[in-house]
Design goal:
The structure is a single chain. By secondary structure, the protein is mainly beta. It has a single domain, classed as Lipopolysaccharide (LPS) transport protein A like domain (lipopolysaccharide transport protein A fold), CATH 2.60.450.10. It is globular.
Length: 175
């Protein structure tokens, strides 16, 4: 039975990332300009503004209107990894999975198989979720986590830290 959890996050990912160029480093690559599809292999590192995507292989597509999507594949030993800064905060989202799907048009990132997503405040892990599939919807600032649907019993796990209060009345007075 699949189990799902949806959690709202307090801020969006960097909006400026959408307008940044996609930079790719890899051991090998092939790009079909006519079809706007590229496949890059071997220690692939993709950056787009504050987004950093690392994987063993990445397929990149660009639509005629300029939207980009990618499918990053890791290995069972070394998962694909994703990192992006949160808008206006000292926070980052970091995720890993065997497969990561990024879609700039839908403004989503999907982590598939042994998925983990963490939100860092500075260098401290504030929230963490794991499951079979995690979908982060940047526009809604919500992530959804699903457990296994294959009967393996993988359950959703999450740790959610309280947000620091900016209300001075909420902070206890010192004696």
């Amino acid at each position: 039975m699949a189990v799902a959890l949806a959690v709202a996050l307090p801020a969006h990912a960097e909006r400026a990332d959408r307008a940044k160029p996609l930079n790719i480093e890899a051991d090998a690559g092939r790009y079909d300009d006519a079809r706007q599809i590229g496949v890059f292999t071997g220690n692939v590192v993709i950056t787009k503004g504050t987004i950093v995507l690392r994987a063993a292989q990445v397929e990149v597509r660009q639509s005629p209107d300029g939207h980009q999507s990618s499918v990053a594949l890791g290995t069972p030993e070394v998962p694909a990894r994703f990192r992006q800064k949160r808008e206006g905060l000292d926070e980052f989202l970091e995720g890993e999975a065997e497969r990561i799907e990024y879609d700039s048009r839908a403004d989503t990132v999907r982590f598939v198989n042994r998925a983990v997503l963490r939100r860092y405040r500075g260098s401290v892990v504030a929230d963490e979720a794991s499951g079979s599939v995690i979908t982060f919807d940047n526009a809604a600032s919500v992530y959804s986590v699903s457990g296994s649907a294959d009967g393996s019993g993988e359950r959703v796990r999450a740790t959610l830290s309280p947000r620091p209060s900016s209300d001075p009345a909420a902070v206890p007075a010192r004696p």
